[in-house]
Amino acid sequence: MIIDIHGHYTTAPAQLGAWRDLQVAFAEGAGDEPSPSDLHISDDDIRETIEANQLRLMDERGSDVTVFSPRASFMAHHIGDFAVSATWARICNDLVARVSQLFPDRFLPGAMLPQSPGVDPKTTLAELDRAVNELGVVTVNINPDPSGGLWTAPLLTDRSWYPLYEKLVEYELPAMIHVSTSCKPQFHTTGDHYLGADTTAFMQLLKGDLFRDFPDLKLVIPHGGGAVPYHWGRFRGLAMALGKPELEEHLLGNVYFDTCVYHQPGIDLLTQVIPTENILFASEMIGAVRDIDPRTGHYFDDTKRYVDATANLDDAKRRQVFEGNARRVYPRLDRALHKRALTAPGL
Fold this sequence. Notes:
By secondary structure, the protein is an alpha/beta fold. It has helices at residues 14-27, 43-51, 54-61, 72-75, 82-102, 125-135, 162-170, 189-207, 210-213, 232-241, 247-250, 264-273, 303-309, 315-329, 331-343; strands spanning 3-8, 65-69, 107-112, 139-142, 175-177, 219-221, 255-258, 279-280, 292-293, 298-299.
């Protein structure tokens, strides 16, 4: 089975963006606050946007299941206050849950959290509880920078995050560390902001001792870890200078990386530097890069091709990357897939 652990609803019906525009205008002092009941998206609207886009490409590329969460750049936690974020998170989480209900064999839901700059992370717990217990999510996205590029949030190792981590461990729920859009024009959202944030998150974890307190916490750093594989020697050296253990002992029992790397040499490096058990297949499709690479004639984000082609993985390791690691790191995903297999026609 090919399990893609990183997908976003980037093709959501236009009604969602139109409603959000009204909410943003309200947050900025213009117009009335829109009600969630004003947003009307039919099942047919969802089917149309999924079948023509993600599902079509999954079938073409040979991917079986996608872990599907709200569009990352749409989270935009820096807009408005906590109440604005809470309403927006609920709407977006409900929508991706509907996708998984309409296509139960192909999508499993993930959730965004209603974070807000300067607000205690424990305020996200109510939506986390709802997403797990009512929507059946198998992961959540945590934004280490709700300010949208200002980096005013406490480090990921700060104790203010601990109530959230305690819940994640209780629910056996891994979290993807994923920023949202940047409010600073100096940063391109899906370019330097995303990749810089991945690197920053890893360095925050390296500097601390979070997993001494949470040995069962699982965190996924997307986009191949940003600069991490390329500068593994630098990070090893910095860990030594800070009096930390080797990275394999210090972080790799808890930190994982996905394969959202859009060329063959990048995947080759990732699979050479990072242990196989810490790599999870993902494409982020349809996401940051949507074009066909003129050098190969294939889409940049067809990452399965790169994993298939790398000489650094034998068949057993390739199965780990495509399926085994996801089932191990995402226990709720594994249980959901087992349940679906038992209830499949003919069984």
